């Protein structure tokens, strides 16, 4: 009789091993066997819990995305209610320590590449992209009309992805402060420009 909670413990152990394997060997060098070896269990147990490599990567990315969601909730809860502060909180969540460690960044890159070929991963990527866009739209929408808010959300989402991708591919530790500074400057530019235009219209 398996111990209560053993399934969750085993899955967490295998997800950690997957992150380590992708970090050290890349996606092409990561197999059920290498994950099993790092977790010090049999390959059959990995197959039992995940079935195959795609399912294992999907579970690993769901874990990373849960960390991202938790970081966003934590930062939004602590932020002031104004759109500027909440937008900065969303940005900060995307550059949270849980998202910029070496293993996680390499797993994100592998996930993006694989999502172009694996439908389940593509759906997961679509959900993540839509969630970020929706959250940004909601906050920009408190400060500007819907069309402008959508455009601003698209621009900021692209900037977040671009800063993250550039940082991930430098081979150096991620410069979180620089990324935050650039993204926050963009938020300030959008909000201040809109506020100035609105003030001119009222004058």
TrEMBL record:
Write down the DNA-binding region ranges. 31-50
**Presence of the UniProt keyword NAD in the record:** no
Q: Which PROSITE patterns match?
A: HTH_TETR_1, HTH_TETR_2
Quote the InterPro entries the UniProt record gives: BetI_C, DNA-bd_HTH_TetR-type_CS, Homeodomain-like_sf, HTH-type_TetR-like_transc_reg, HTH_TetR, Tet_transcr_reg_TetR-rel_C_sf, Tscrpt_rep_BetI
Q: Which GO terms describe its molecular function?
A: DNA-binding transcription factor activity; transcription cis-regulatory region binding
Repressor among keywords: yes
Listed GO biological process terms: glycine betaine biosynthetic process from choline; negative regulation of DNA-templated transcription
Please give the Pfam families that the UniProt record associates with this protein: TetR_C_6, TetR_N
The biological pathway it contributes to is: Amine and polyamine biosynthesis; betaine biosynthesis via choline pathway [regulation]
| NCBIfam families on file | betaine_BetI (TIGR03384), PRK00767.1 (NF001978)
**What role does this protein play?**
Repressor involved in the biosynthesis of the osmoprotectant glycine betaine. It represses transcription of the choline transporter BetT and the genes of BetAB involved in the synthesis of glycine betaine.
From the Swiss-Prot or TrEMBL record, give the protein name.
HTH-type transcriptional regulator BetI
Organism expressing this protein natively: Paraburkholderia eburnea
């Amino acid at each position: 009789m398996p111990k209560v909670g053993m399934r969750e413990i085993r899955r967490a152990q295998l997800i950690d091993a997957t992150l380590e394997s992708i970090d050290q060997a890349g996606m092409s060098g990561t197999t059920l066997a290498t994950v099993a070896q790092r977790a010090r269990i049999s390959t059959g147990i990995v197959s039992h819990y995940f079935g195959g490599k795609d399912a294992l990567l999907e579970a690993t990315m769901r874990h990373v995305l849960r960390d991202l969601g938790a970081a966003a909730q934590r930062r939004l809860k602590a932020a002031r209610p104004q759109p500027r502060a909440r937008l900065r909180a969303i940005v900060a969540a995307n550059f949270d320590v849980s998202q910029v460690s070496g293993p996680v960044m390499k797993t994100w890159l592998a996930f993006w590449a694989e999502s172009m070929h694996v439908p389940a991963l593509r759906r997961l990527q679509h959900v993540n992209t839509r969630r970020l866009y929706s959250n940004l739209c909601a906050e920009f929408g408190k400060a500007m009309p819907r069309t402008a808010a959508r455009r601003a959300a698209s621009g900021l989402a692209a900037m977040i992805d671009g800063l993250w991708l550039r940082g991930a591919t430098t081979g150096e530790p991620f410069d979180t402060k620089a990324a935050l500074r650039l993204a926050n400057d963009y938020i300030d530019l959008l909000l201040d420009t809109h506020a100035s235009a609105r003030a001119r219209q009222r004058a």
